[in-house]
C-alpha cells in the first residue's frame, strides 16, 4: 500500500508546490519581456548605427569638398584684392608677374563665389533614393498633387533653400548659374565643374 496520502499538502518548495509553479511562470514571463525589450533596443541601435554610418559616408565628403572650395575661393579673392592695394609703410610689397587684368579676375572670382553660395545641400549630396521610392509607393510625393510628401523639420536653412529653389524655378535658373533648359549639374559633376573654374582662376593668378 502506498504510504503517501493524496490528501496531504505538498511539501513547500517541491515541484508539486503551486507556489513554485507560479514563481516559475512569473520569472519566465519577466525574463521573456526583458529579453524582448533588449532585442528591440539592440535592433534599433544596430539599425540606427548602420544608417548613420551610411549617411555620414555619403554626406560628409561632398560637404567638406564644398566648404573647401568656398574657402579657397574666398582666399583667392582676398589675394587678388590685396595685390592691387598699395601697402602701407613697413608692410612688404606682394610680388606678382601677372598681366594687368586684375579687374576681370576679381569679377570672375566673385562670380564663382556667388555660384558656390547658390549650391544647396540637396545639390551636393546624393539623392535619398530609398525615401523617394517609399514616397512613390505610398503616394506621398508632394508633386503632381499626390500628397504632401515627406516633411522635414523647418529650420531657417531649409526655409532659405526652399525660397532659393522657388526663385530658381521662376527665373529658369539652375544652381550652377548657367540657366537654360539643360539638366542641372549635381553632386560630383557640379563640384567638379566649380573646382575646375577655381583651378583656372588660380592658374590665371600665377601667370
Cα separation of the termini: 117 Å
**Total helical elements:** 6
Portion in beta strands: under 5%
Q: Which stretches are poorly predicted, pLDDT < 50 over at least 5 residues? A: 96-100, 143-148
Helix residue percentage: 55-70%
Name the overall outline. elongated
Average pLDDT works out at: 73
Largest sheet: none
User: How big is the Rg?
Assistant: 33 Å
Count the beta strands. 0
Q: Decide which structural class fits the backbone.
A: mainly alpha
Order of helices and strands: HHHHHH
Features of the shown structure:
207 residues, mainly alpha, 6 helices, elongated
Give a topology summary.
Elements: H1 18-83, H2 102-118, H3 121-124, H4 129-137, H5 156-171, H6 187-206
Helix pairs in contact: 1-2, 1-6, 2-6
Brief account:
The chain has 207 residues and is mainly α. The chain has helices at residues 18-83, 102-118, 121-124, 129-137, 156-171, 187-206.
Question: Describe it for me?
Answer:
The chain is an all-alpha fold. 64% of the residues lie in helices and 0% in strands. It starts with 17 loop residues before the first helix and ends with a helix. About 5% of the residues have low confidence.
